[in-house]
Specification:
Layout (H helix, E strand, L loop, with lengths): L8 E2 H21 L2 H17 L2 E4 L3 E7 L2 E6 L3 E4 L5 E6 L3 E4 L3 E4 L5 E12 L2 H6 L4 H17 L18 H16 L4 E13 L1 H41 L6 H16 L16
Helix pairs in contact: 1-2, 4-5, 6-7
Length: about 280
Amino acid sequence: MNERTGFSITGIPFVGICVLVAVVGLVLLFAGGLYAALGIALEALELFLAKGFFQVAPNTGQVLQLFGKYAGTIRAEGLRWTNPFYSKRRISLRVRNFESGKLKVNDSDGNPIEIAAVVVWQVVDTAEAMFCVDDYENFVRIQSESALRQMAQSYPYDAHSDCEPSLRSHGEEINSHLREQIQTRLGKAGVQVTEARISHLAYAQEIAQAMLQRQQAGAIVAARERIVEGAVGMVGMALEELRKQGVVELDEERKAAMVSNLLVVLCGERGTQPVLNTGTLYN
């Protein structure tokens, strides 16, 4: 079922018609006789026509039904008039958002995590929103949480390599995937998802401490690798400069000792205490 424009006319000119019918009815009613019966009929007609008036606020729509059958949607703002037999239901077309509750799920590695998301959405097809699902607002919330749960199970919390997407490191890619998953589910309800973003992401409480230690260990190892890489480069540069400038000639054993000492100095966590050699290199 797709939305279509229902029948309605501008209400202000029709107000004048209703007022005219009411005045004529009152005149005939006071005239007496057969005119009074006609006046009563006109007054009843005026009351019946007044049922056709309704208002449409900005960014809202009025869904019209005729004896249960969908008759169209009115989006034109202001006072409108339509068939008095039509029943009318208001529906908001404004952009809305909600934040899901914190869901506890397992990521693709099986680690329990907590995750929540903010979803921005709006109704674009009033017919589908009103008649294809029972309660479209509740439908949006439940399906969004279902899509969030499925998406969280498709990625690891932390990436095991630089090219592997993860929930923590690839925010834009994850958010785009989440929006597509939610839109797929909500398309049948006439809802368009404008944006979907993760608002909360953390390991579950029972493993948070262990995972924090693992992250700290990973950071320490990465830092040590960078330090060792820089230290080796500096040692090689020092030996090369000593050789080029002919400052001192070292055999392989002395080079190894020098390299060991330099690496201790450059890679140590604490400041080293210098030891002055007052003898020769071989004593």
